[in-house]
User: Fold these one by one.
Assistant:
Number 1:
Amino acid sequence: MDFELFTNILFATLRTGTPLILIALGEMVCEKSGVLNLGQEGMVLMGAALGFIAAVVTGHAGLGIIAAILAGMMMSVLFAFLAVTLVSNQVATGLALTIFGTGLSGFLGAGYVGMAIDGIAPFPIPLLSDIPFIGKVLFSHDPLVYLSWVMFALIFWCFRSTRLGLTIRAVGENPEAANAIGIPVMKVRYGAILFGGAMAGLAGAYLSLVYTPMWSEGMSAGRGWIALALVVFASWKAERILLGAYLFGAASIMHLVLQGLGFEASPNLLAMLPYGATIIVLVIIASDAAKAKLSTPLALGKPYRPQV
Amino acid sequence: MLNITLEKRPSDSKLMSYLSPIFAVILTLISGGLLFTALGQDPFHALYTFFISPLTDIYGWTELGVKVAPLTLCAIGLMLCFKARVWNIGAEGQFILGGLGGGYIALELMDAEGFWVLPLVLFFGALSGLLWGALTALLKTRFGANEILTTIMLNYIALNWLLYGVHGPLKDPDGFNFPESALFSDFATLPVLSDDYRLNISIFFALFAVAVIWALMSKTLLGFQISVLGEDKAAARFAGFKEERLIWFVLLACGALAGLAGVSEVTGSIGQLNPYISPGYGYAAIIVVFLGRMHPIGIVFASMLLALTYMGGEMAQMDLALPKSLTGLFQGMLLFYLLACDLLISYRIVRKPTARSTGSSSNSAQA
Amino acid sequence: MNQIELNNITKRYPGCVANQSVDLKVAVGEIHALLGENGAGKSTLMKIIYGVVKPDEGAMRWQGQTVSVKGPAHARDLGIGMVFQHFSLFETLTVAENIALSLPKAESASMDLLKQRIIDVSEHYGMKLDPNRYVHTLSIGEQQRVEIVRCLLQDVKLLILDEPTSVLTPQEVETLFKTLHLLSDEGCSILFISHKLDEVRALCDHATILKSGQVSGHCVPSETTTEELARLMVGDDTPLTEDYKKAEGDEAFLSIVDLSHQSDDPFACTLKNVSFEVKAGEILGIAGVAGNGQEELLNLISGEDTSAKETVFFAKKAVGNLTPEKRRILGLGFVPEERLGRGAVPDMSLQDNGLLTGYQGELTKNGIINTGKVKAFAQNILERFNVKAAGIHAQAKSLSGGNLQKYIIGREILQDPKLLVCSHPTWGVDIGAAILIRHELIKLRDEGCAVLVVSEDIDELYSISDRICAICDGELSPVAPTHDVSINQLGMWMAGDFHALNNENEGAVK
């Protein structure tokens, strides 16, 4: 394999991993607070659709990003209202969010299928991007890739050394106890869910404005679900999400690698790779049950409503 | 001053668990009306087009049956899984694999003649779905992998497998390079009830499955064990029910039923393999189960409603020039409203005065 | 001056009145007992003071000022600290992190400073704590210290302790009382919630007694007999003392032989070389503080967890590797600690909950359920064990703790077990039901059943066990006839000192 191809593959890996990082980081925060939101796929799709529509209508990709974040948050409010305020079953509600988001995004985006826009241009970081190899792989990306690193750093720091991180973890471990010592459990959970929605919306914008600047129905192709698996794979640790997302990114662009090596393979068979990889990963993590139990937020998925 | 709070009922309300789906449908209709109004349509005409016009003639009702059959088969299988709290989201993949596996046999037997062909094709379809379900069961019981995520992944893999088949080895050599298989022979096609309509005998498969599962869940110890496992895993273990076996059973049963639905679809109303053999029946069936209150009879009615949303989506596309994805939108909305209304099963809404915790408020009886 | 004064507090829940016009006064530096049996409304009243629950009526005065406590944070600002019965701790966080969460932001800004304060305060009050340890690695007694130190760090004026001694060994109780006396000498008021009369008489200056949500009396405990206190708690028509004859027992039915077990669960306790037997016609009691291996041991006896075949025997038959339903066929009956969510399915009817363990007899045939017989079985339990319920269709979760426990024990007893294993048989159960349950256990014993009781309630174990022992950190103490073991010695056993000699015979309970 020649060096340029190798560079390109690493570059593409980071690009492909970015939406997964955004979704998974958002979901991780949400799950740390004890809420399992299986609606990621729906929120991502809404973010992608509304981000694209806003970008087309206003002509500003930046406004598209804002619209996508808002769309993700609107969807997550819906989820939060049901799952937190109305103590509904979180699994069913998350599925509903995905079905609803898939339907609504398809409906709203129907008139925009096949349109082309410019998307968000890459922003090579001056000086750094001139470094051979590293410059191309790490510092010649679009702004959202850098933003994903900033978000990673923020979340890493938040759970490592802030009271906010401690509070979120407390709520996710034992909401009754948290309520008893005066932590506003419902507010913390709403906040975590909203943050997850914003991140999913942002990931949607990445897909429809950066990765492939266009809109098509169901374009997230299961990334929301893969991100959910990633959170488990990462044992709810931000640094492992980063690592896992790039591994998945690499698995998703295998066709590039194979073509580079001169192989011919059916695109449909290659498209199975990330999903198969996800299953393998799920098996690997689940095999260490004891460790999984120590890192899982104890109240994950359990509805809680304080008695007054 | 009054404020509204939720109060937990000491016992769940049976009445509310039946009323909740009705409330959900009403709320969905109201929201749908508002949506149509916002789109500049006459809401009553639009709702009529979506929900009533598909059923104004016999043809419409038979078409409803064509969609009810696969939905019911998938949903009744999912019901078993959900009763056991095995969150199998994989009916879609099991449906596709059933179609693909049965379709493959049908294509292999293109030149075969005899009445044994169809049963064989159906059997292999159900078997393919069952094996796809078995994969999930293996991953869950042997490796402890979360079934929600594995089944979703298996759905995507199944879809890509189907795409690979119809774009590759199973493509009709005389099909002008369309991604479709050849049409199956008459011996591998489900008989229709009447030559005027597309409704075929798969509707009886569905009704038969409903009856069997209903008897299983209400009359047998196996059904009871499935319910206990779903309600309370610790109690099931305490009572000595074999968790792994039950998980295997529900996933295999669901896989076989969804596989049967898939093979019935390709040997029935479609008649060949193509990339669109499922319009998301496996996902819609999830809504059917919840809407049908996890009860076989409820599932039949809920299947009819969900089947109607597919037909309504097509009507809206034809008559109102609205996108077909309206179907998914209505389905999602319905499930949302249902989950919200389900709150009323275990809570009631009470209006009560805010606490008078300050001042010299004293109990009137004591004053 | 009164530190706190409650007037006319009323709190209603759907279906019951938890507190009815309750008055309560606690003076500065006073140790005040709030007495009452399970379900009398003590916990609700405490939650009202602490702002977790809002009262429907009534007023609270704090240091002479009328206040309305908006929530736990507000209560802490006022100087009210609370130690919950079920600790409100976060197991995966460290001691310091747990404490930081309940302090105002400014005070927890520097973790190093906070850790030093934790060390200082805990040493001053004789409750050593390491701020860096994770809570799930602490013993129950140590976890309670975390709760108390958490309160002491914020200049507490009123410390509320909800049943603090129920999870401690007798020796730990003494240490706790010393700390509480020290606090009271420093001017801190203490509200001590309990249903243990001897402790209240030893510790408290005044007592308020609650019965069915209402105040049924006030007294000075040291000047009141245990008998009088008990009458105030339970009323006139309930028998107070039960005196059961001890039995010798017959052949061993259950034998545990050199059982060692390590669970996959990182929070679980490892069992080390446990050996004992339970004879037909005797009750063996195992005392111990929660989390010392009781759960793991019981799971291995019930078959919910399995071990090597030759470690568990039912009437000389090795069953260590058998599943629960096979052990049930051999005569096992089991009453687990968790009534809702293990012993009974909360959302299912009593009828279905009867079938839950009764499915092996004549209730089913060839896998088909005989609904008529299931109904009769459930109805029989209701009548025979005096279970108050709306009928066999009532959901298990709609029953009170005592009635549900009667139903579960009844279900097991009606299947004629040869071995009945009971975990915490009367925990959280009202006195009437508790007496009925103990009666039934004794009756079962007299009919020749082997009975194993695991409990944290030492008084109960002394009352019904023929032989007694204790479990600590996965190891079992020697087993001895109950009347040969003094409370003091049992306390040593519970703390893991199995070689403690029983040299003060006068302390032995007759």
Number 2:
Amino acid sequence: MPEHAIVVGSRLGASPIAVGVGLLLSALILWMVVAHTVLPADHPLHVSAFWITLLGKFLCYAMLAVAMDLIWGYAGILSLGQGLFFALGGYVFGMYLMRQIGRDGVYQSDLPDFMVFLDWKAYPWYWALSDSFGWTLVLVVLVPGLVALVFGFLAFRSRIRGVYFSIMTQALTYAAMLAFFRNDMGFGGNNGFTDFKRIVGFPIAEPLTRSVLLALSGLALLASYMICRAVVRSRAGQVLIAIREAEPRLLFLGYQSLHFKLFAWVVAALISAVAGALYVPQVGIINPGEMSPAQSIEVAIWTAVGGRGSLIGPILGAFAVNGAKSWFTVAFPQLWLFVLGFLFVAVTLFLPKGLHGVLRRDPGSILVPWRRP
Amino acid sequence: MPGASAQILRNAWAGPGAPTVDRFRPLLIAAVLALAAASLFFGARSAAAGTGAPGSTAAGFAIEEGLPLSGLRSDDPDERIEAVESIALSGHALAGRVLRAIEDERLVWLEERGWMLLAEGGAAVPPPGAQTVGVNNRVRAALENAQAFLALGDSDVQRRREAASTLEGIEAVRYLEALTAAWQRESDSVVRQALLLAVAKLRLQSPEASLRLEAVRALALAESSAVRRQLQDLLGLDSTGFREPDPQVREAARVALAAMDARLRKFEWIAAAFSGLSLGSVLLLAALGLAITYGLMGVINMAHGEFLMIGAYSTYLVQQLFRRFAGDWIDWYVLAAVPLAFLASALLGIVLERTVLRWLYGRPLETLLSTWGVSLLLIQSCRLLFGAQNVEVENPSWLSGSMALAGDIVIPYNRMAILAFALVVLLGVYTVLQQTRAGLFVRAVTQNRAMASCTGIPTDRVDTLTFGFGCGIAGLGGVALSQLGNVGPDLGQQYIVDSFMVVVLGGVGQLAGTAIAALGLGSVSKILEPFTGAVLAKIMVLLFIIAFIQRRPQGLFALKGRSADA
């Protein structure tokens, strides 16, 4: 069956690696869902909620990595603030989940516990639309999308690029993190949102709810991949690669690079936001830590480890790095930062095309030690 | 009995009310002290010799009369406080020793023998059945004031000054007359000033309006927030109307408050300007190294913060070395740490440049990621070596404490030193870059690498050394930071965004721009802080920089050039 899939896939223009990753992930999700919902809890093959959550989390991270690859791997724009859009999507969805708690909080108030704690009497105005699921779905893409549009427009119009742009995005997410840490912001301060009970009326911890969310995350990842693939294979995608390689030359050729960059930038922000919105109900918490510069820069390393400019590589990278992180932080907590730090250095020095390049046996994928620049 | 030489002296010190005795007072005091010392000496000796002798249960001697001690046995702390004040005011030669003894619980009451003064030093075991004087916080405060009052008779000016500054907070009206007398005969201006305040504060409680008026006018000269509060109290209301019934006194208090506020405001401005400059100098020290590695060389060193950390930990290590091997010189460990921190950071910077960065020139985004990885490695190594907790770095004595401007407005010495240090380092970097041959090479390679190479400049080595120099400067920043706040593995992370903001705002490649941006950002933050709070001020400054860069992408001071890809 895999051979058949690869033949079909290559007719559709997909690489064997992409087909393989797709099959593997679909099978994994399917098996986990069945083992979690159908098998009884004491069955040896039962999959606990922990693994469902973990896989769901990784799928959301993979979406983030795909978005990163679109802007960094193809357009050469390294964003160190992708966590901001992820967290904004998460916060918007978290507001809806907080509303769904209703009076089941510790203080049994109509308001979330943290607002009771601050002695607030009513929801602030920006919580107005959050009790409607439909509006929440709109705002999940609208709010981060607008932030990305405004910031991107201003930055790209002023021709801020390269490292300058990276540092600006880092400052942006850092400023947002500081702001969300403040209790007065009305987003729960450093505890953020947690203790969710329901989603669209369904209890959030039920196996079936979890399974649906997991399946949705899988579909969202597939959709993100397909969208980005369509973008990079279009003529606009060619312009994005040209921007990466030599933007000044492109400008002299008469292309308005602003529009192309802004388009890719906003698409990436939207994918990140959707990933964040799916992440929050599965993991059950969102706090300003998601906006920290360190968190955002890790996304870059998932992408780099997987292989930039391949779209499928970053998915592998997100799974590989986060899988290693989950294992190390339990088994050797002190060593994890060494591994991560080493990954940053080693991948940039020795593996410019990442895992994807190794899998494809690309001759340029491994730098013979310290090839002179 | 052991206290055979117990001195019962009555009115040895005639007290401040008798000016005719003034001339003889030093002689009298000397005589009394000599006698007291002798009595102590013999008392202790005879006590030591007489242990086991009938009736002697402890080293000490009885005090029979002459001191108003009876109130000390009361259960009411107010009466005990009154007794303490009476002792101080009695002028008795033993008053000081008795007060000290009460504090140390060496004055005991024995049913069969009366008051006993136990010998100092804890050698004496209280005899069975001995009761000490109950000392609670209020009694302790009264004891402190009483002892300070007695210390006003000391010949050492320094001790009189300390005593007078304690007495500034006095509230017991009974001291009024005695303090007035002490003020009249005092010669030292500092002591006089403090006593004047103390007297004025006591006079405020006087029933006579004219005395209160005089007191308010005297208090107008004070520069402490306690006095300010007291004056404000006068203008307050209670159930019977104004707390101060006399309108003239109230008016004087209003004038005094206005004068005081005007003076304080001036100093507040100075303090605010200083704290802005101080924050700016910290930012400058944190960013100056980056201005070289990023600004001149274009290397995005995300591990820059960790070089600050290394500088701070070097300071810590030097401090520990001094503690172990050169305890006498401990005050100067900071000076020894300066070159060592520079060398440690510079060395590590050279290693980093040779092993990692060299292969990534021309690929700034990869440089960014790999140096971020290096920063993680350095942080975690530091955690393993020194522990995840902050280590303790102490200010040497000449850097601790602060200069009082007025009242509660102070300028800490360590911040002053860091401001000076930042300027010295800035000057040093400027001199190296502009006045030395090495600096000439650095500028040549920065401006035109190919041409510099053609003229025989070893560009490779210049790169390595420049990067090392920048990292060393970061190490110097670390020494300064270690004197200000916590030294921990996360030290560098707090400064990395700020440092980049300073360099970017100042204009890449511009030393002067970096300096002005650092001082400007520091001042703006401190100007905003009173209105918005520290966090919001920081957010606003970050957003301001992001917006500013949109308008002027090249920073405050742009290099003029023709490159399309600048």
